[in-house]
Every structure is written in structure tokens, then in C-alpha cells.
Amino acid sequence: MSTGAEGVTAPIDIVIVDKSPLVTEGLRAFFRADGRIGEIAVAAGVDEFFAISTKRAFDVAVTGWVLGADSGSRILEAVADRDDGPRVVVYTGAPAANIPHTVMALGGAAFCSKTEPPARLIEIVVEVARGQMVFPFLEVRRWRSDRLSTLTPREMAFVAALADGHSNKSLAAEFGVTVNTVKFHLRNAYAKLDARNRAQAVAVFLQSEGG
After folding, report:
1. pLDDT digits over 154-177, tens only?
2. Domain tally for the chain?
3. In the predicted structure, residue 2 carries a pLDDT above the cut 60
4. Which of 7, 85, 86, 184 sits most deeply, having the most CB atoms within 10 A of its CB?
């Protein structure tokens, strides 16, 4: 698909990621009825998304935030390292107030709450395909004072994964790095968060996320 500031000139190919088959199939049917949308793939989780997105390129990925034991943050982290990765729209009903800040910090293109009508999600996908970023109003002064905003995208992804209960070993396996690399990034994150250990880092993360 050709995209850019001047508009979309071809159908938008998308991949939908959500742990709920009802959500993925419902969204696929809704998107299919819109003539601006081209190929639609679905994935039940992060690993399936990786398998699909390495076989072909998509313009936009629409992903949930809570993906079973996993998180949409890992999709954002992986896509950030790829020149050909899709632009990511996080579409979630998770109540944490700071998720849009986290999505933006991790390089996401847009955030849409599931309280919005599906038609709004389609418009956001079209805007993202045109090269726009779409977020609700963010309290920038609060964000700047938030210690999480000092983290790099990788540090943010690691701390978010810690909050989901992952160990250093599982983080290394999921992100394709060594355990020593995980420890290096976590040490840097702890210092920035003024946390002495993972429990304190997770507490800072959850407090910032509204949990």
C-alpha cells in the first residue's frame, strides 16, 4: 500500500492481535465491510503476530494491550526495531489511565479505547496509514514528571513485562537477548526509577499506570 501525508492510494493491509476470538472475528468482519481496508490477518497473541508479520508486510497492526500472559508492549518493542514493521494502534479496554503515555513512549502510532465505537477505530487506522499519530489528550506536564518517561523503549518494555510476572530468564527468551543483557537494562531502569529492586520498579510502574 502507498501511504503518506497526501493520503492513502491503495487498500490498507492490517493485522489484528487480540486474545479473544470474538474480538478478532468481530473486528475482521467490521473492517472487511470498509472499502479502504485490504488484506486482514488475525493473531491470538504476540508469538502468532511475529509468525504472521515475518511472512508478509502489513501497513497497520491493531493490538490489544493485555494479551493473556503477554502484553502489547512486546509488539511495540519488536516493531520499533524493524524498518518494515507495521504502524501500531493499541485498542484496549484495560482501565489503566497511563497506557496511552506508555504506548507513545514505546513508539506506538495511536491509542483507541474499546469504549469508542468501531467506526472510530477504522478512522484511526486510516489516519495512521496516512502517517498520522492519534492519541487522546495527554497531560504532558504529568508525563514529564513521570519517572517512566525517562526510560528507553526497551527499558519500558522490560519493566512492563516484569509487572506481568516475567522472570529475567523468560524475558531473555522472549526478547531474544541474553540474561546479562536483561540485567543490564533492568539495572539502568531501576536507577532511573529510583528503585532498589524489581518489586519497587514494578510498584512505580503500576502506580504510574493507575493500577
Report:
1. 888 888 888 888 899 988 888 888
2. 2
3. no
4. 86
CA atoms within 13 A on the CB side of 150: 12
| Integer Cα distance of 56 and 189 in angstroms | 34
Cell for 120? Answer: 472510530
Same domain assignment for residues 22 and 123? yes
- My answer on whether 93 and 161 are in the same domain is no
Residue 56 sits in which domain range? 12-129
Domain stop point among 73, 94, 129: 129
Chain segment 179-199, per-residue pLDDT in tens: 988 898 898 888 888 888 888
Whether residues 98 and 152 share a domain: the answer is no
Taking the whole predicted model, whether its pTM rises above 0.90 is answered as no
Q: What is the 3-state secondary structure (H, E, C) of 108-157?
A: CCEEEECCCCHHHHHHHHHHHHCCCCECCCCCHHHHHHCHHHHCCHHHHH
